[in-house]
Write a structure and sequence with these properties.
- By secondary structure, the protein is mostly helical.
- The protein contains five helices and no strands.
Length: 124
Amino acid sequence: MRTRFIVAFTLLMLTGCGTGTPVSTTPMSNAERLELGADSYQTFCAACHGTDLRGTTQGSSLLSIVYEPNHHADFAFTTAIKDGVKAHHWKFNDMPPTASITDDEIAAVIAFVRNVQDLEGFDQ
């Protein structure tokens, strides 16, 4: 039992240390990636997280300080998008997995969100 805990804890710590962003399989410039990210965000995320990333009655603001990279690394975004996530910071419903989104689109969405966070800053 103790060995399982150590292994699980080690894996958790290691995955939290990297960005965890899916590796793009398509070569793109940064501008192309941000454009794909903006388009994919509007398609897959905006209905809940807002067209301006400031949230809706369905989902949280991605400009909340909770989503800064030191608290929610890119890996957390990747996992939430691919696998869904239980509500743990907000009083929204659980986030379901995002159907039919590709790894390239996930990487682009994360790049887009991080770019907007850099430009806009975080709300407290």
